[in-house]
Amino acid sequence: MSLRVAVLVSGEGTNLQAILDKVHGREGIEVVGVASSRAGARGLERARAAGVETAVFAAADHPDREARDLALADWLDERGAELVVLAGFMEILTGEFIRRFSGRIVNVHPSLLPAFPGVRSIERAVDHGVRVTGVTVHFVDEGVDTGPIILQRAVPLSYPARIEEIEDRIHAVEHELLPQAVRLIAQGRVRIDPVNHRRVLIEGEGGDGDG
């Protein structure tokens, strides 16, 4: 199997780096473009260092969000992107963009969804005193972190807890789980359950919850 991947970033790009390091150029997987909402995003430098084409689609450079997302979608299509990965892309995409790439957009989120969707997920989990949080990779739909779940991995917590240490542990899991999801999709092993569209079926999945 092969898979042409585009990655959207807004900041540091550590999840992008994990994809570049672990799956780009392997098993037919190729990162064909990295786009950012911010010209100063460190993720763009990471992409250029890997020889991957980059572009910036700042909202201020377009009449409105719909126009920005249309330009972004056209750029992705021009590069033949088959999968769009949101790797720290800190902007809401329009419904039209999501429908255009329906079933082909994935996101990584720092909680065990459906718990703590949206922003400040790690801080909210700690404030709530949960004993287990984690990481979710999911398909993107038009809701906020409501799309079908592909992979999850738990991260146990104990208190008192330093938020910086928890963030480091969460990010380490993200850097493993997101490339794993891209690899499974490239292998053709991931599909939406035709009976229950909320669920994802993974061919050959074991019982450990990590795919």
Description:
By secondary structure, this protein is an alpha/beta fold. It has a single domain, classed as Rossmann fold, CATH 3.40.50. It is built from 6 helices and 9 strands. The chain has helices spanning 14-22, 42-49, 65-78, 95-100, 121-128, 163-186, and strands spanning 3-9, 29-36, 54-56, 83-86, 105-109, 132-139, 149-156, 190-192, 200-202. Strands 3-2-1-4-5-6-7 form a 7-stranded mixed beta sheet. A two-stranded antiparallel ribbon has the order 8-9. α1 (14-22) links the parallel β1 and β2 (29-36). The relative contact order is 0.15.
Question: Keywords for this structure?
Answer:
single chain, 211 residues, alpha/beta, Rossmann fold, seven-stranded mixed beta sheet, two-stranded antiparallel sheet, 6 helices, 9 strands, 23% strand, globular, disordered C terminus
Percent of sequence in beta strands:
15-25%
How many structural units, i.e. domains?
Answer: 1
CATH superfamily: Formyl transferase, N-terminal domain
Distance between the termini: 18 Å
- The total of beta strands comes to 9
Spatially, the strands of the biggest sheet line up as 3-2-1-4-5-6-7
Q: Low-confidence parts, pLDDT < 50 over ≥5 residues?
A: 207-211
CATH topology annotation: Rossmann fold
Helical proportion? 25-40%
For the biggest sheet, the summary is: 7 strands, mixed
The total of helices stands at 6
The assigned CATH architecture is 3-Layer(aba) Sandwich
Shape: globular
What's the CATH C level? Alpha Beta
Order of helices and strands: EHEHEHEHEHEEHEE
Radius of gyration over C-alpha positions, nearest whole angstrom: 17 Å
The pLDDT mean sits at 95
> Class by helix and strand content?
alpha/beta
